[in-house]
Design brief:
It contains ten helices and 20 strands. The chain has helices spanning about 55-60, 70, 75-90, 105-110, 125-135, 170-180, 200-210, 225-230, 295-305, 370-380, and strands spanning about 1-5, 15, 30, 95-100, 115-120, 140-145, 155-160, 180-195, 200, 215-220, 235-245, 250-260, 265-270, 280, 285, 315-325, 330-340, 355-360, 385-390, 405-410. The protein is elongated and about 90 Å long.
Length: about 425
């Protein structure tokens, strides 16, 4: 279903100060039902306005404030919303983004409370109503798609959204984008509801927010008749969420051995592991707890090939940061050793490897793990520090025709 709505799909970022003109409208996908403007419920009792799928919000904008909870013209309704906002927003002045602001009623309350407000909507006519209402408050008006807000990450203390989330086909993705706009310690304030077969139940919204947030506060709103201009019988609620701080980046560290015999290198073919089976790779493995990378490569060389290498036998060839097609990232330390150091190699793990063979460096086999292939390419070229980050649809194996993903980093002193 395509619903014409304030949040809108499509992308427009035309910015205008209060009092200036703004262009065109937009559309927003999502669910069934007939709430009010942009998904806003109707007046007391939740009777609705008849607005819904296919509504032209530019056309209805001039009359949208007739709803008690839209225009906030009744002092009791206005005071009820002002009281709630005071509790949900931090102490003024804070930078507040009102997404899908409609005619700007909540933005006006925030501005009057001393906040620095940016009000954004997809409908030019809604923004025209908001512009008149917000004149003289210093509010910044931006015509934009709420699903893809054109604002820099970490630019706001509050993202305020009322009756909009339910319109989008992928609310989880939209919530991630909204949370990314918040500074550390910021808060996402959502006012949502469930009206007959429309909207989102509270349980669904809190489940979507759980992996994104550190703290989550919910408030039922249905029982506060002053908010709606009369009693309502459906589910209406607010959620105030504090996104979790960014997690410290961590990566697996693995080690690889390029065992040389003249112009040849030793490779093993993976088998029965569940990952990259049938592909060639240098002897390798993960660094274990308490190990340094040199100790790890000596251990892995023995476990996989039976070689008893000493610290003096190995040299660092290169270091590579690699990201798999799945997005998982790791740091690879590639070491070099020269045969016959450590003895004669053998397949010491036949349950994980079905072949161990020497190959000329300039005639490597087909079916190489792309990560290892990039390491061998860098090794032959004498590159020491490399980034290798797969695109999401890249194969694990190096395949002819797939663009190379290696980026060589310049070394100190290199011009």
């Amino acid at each position: 279903m395509t619903r014409t709505g304030r949040g809108g799909a499509g992308r427009s970022g035309d910015e205008a100060p209060a009092g200036a003109a703004a262009p065109g409208g937009g559309t927003a996908p999502r669910r069934n039902g007939t709430p009010g403007s942009g998904g806003v419920p109707g007046e007391g009792g939740g009777a609705g306005t008849g607005w819904g799928a296919g509504t032209d919000w530019d056309a209805v904008a001039p009359g949208s404030d007739a709803g008690a909870d839209h225009g906030l013209r009744d002092p009791a309704v206005r005071d009820a919303w002002a009281g709630r906002l005071t509790a949900w927003l931090p102490a003024a002045p804070a930078d507040v983004l009102d997404l899908g602001c409609g005619t700007g009623s909540l933005a006006l309350l925030a501005a009057r409370a001393g906040h620095r407000v940016t009000a954004s909507d997809r409908s030019a006519a809604m923004l025209a109503e908001a512009r008149a209402k917000l004149a003289g408050t210093g509010t910044r008006l931006v015509r934009a798609d709420a699903a893809h807000p054109p604002f820099a990450p970490r630019s706001f203390d509050v993202v305020l959204v009322r009756h909009l989330l339910w319109l989008f086909a992928d609310p989880a993705a939209v919530l991630r984008r909204w949370c990314a706009l918040l500074r550390p310690g910021g808060r996402l304030v959502l006012v949502e509801g469930r009206w007959k077969d429309a909207g989102l139940p509270l349980a669904e919204v809190t489940a979507l927010l759980a992996p994104l947030t550190e703290r989550l506060h919910t408030e039922p709103l249905s029982g506060d008749a002053d908010l709606w201009g009369g009693p309502v019988g459906d589910e209406r609620y607010a959620v105030v969420a504090s996104p979790a701080p960014p997690r410290r980046h961590s990566e697996i560290v693995d080690v690889h051995l390029f065992l040389r015999r003249g112009d040849e290198v030793l490779l093993a073919r993976r088998a029965n592991t569940g990952y990259a089976d049938g592909l060639w790779h240098a002897p390798s493995g993960h660094v274990e707890e308490g190990e340094d990378v040199r100790t790890a490569v000596l251990r892995e060389a023995y476990e996989e090939t039976g070689l008893r290498l000493t610290p003096e036998d190995v040299r660092v060839a290169l270091v590579m940061q690699h990201a798999a097609p799945s997005g998982g990232s790791r740091i690879g330390w590639f070491f070099e050793a020269v045969h016959p150091a450590g003895g004669e190699p053998r397949n010491a793990e036949p349950h994980k490897c079905d072949a161990l063979e020497w190959f000329p460096l300039d005639a490597l086999p087909d079916g190489l793990v792309a990560y290892c292939a990039a390491g061998l390419d860098a090794y032959r070229a004498g590159d020491r520090f490399v980034l290798h980050r797969h695109a999401p649809d890249d194969p694990v194996a190096r395949v002819a025709g797939v663009p190379g993903r290696a980026v060589v980093l310049r070394e100190s002193g290199e011009r």
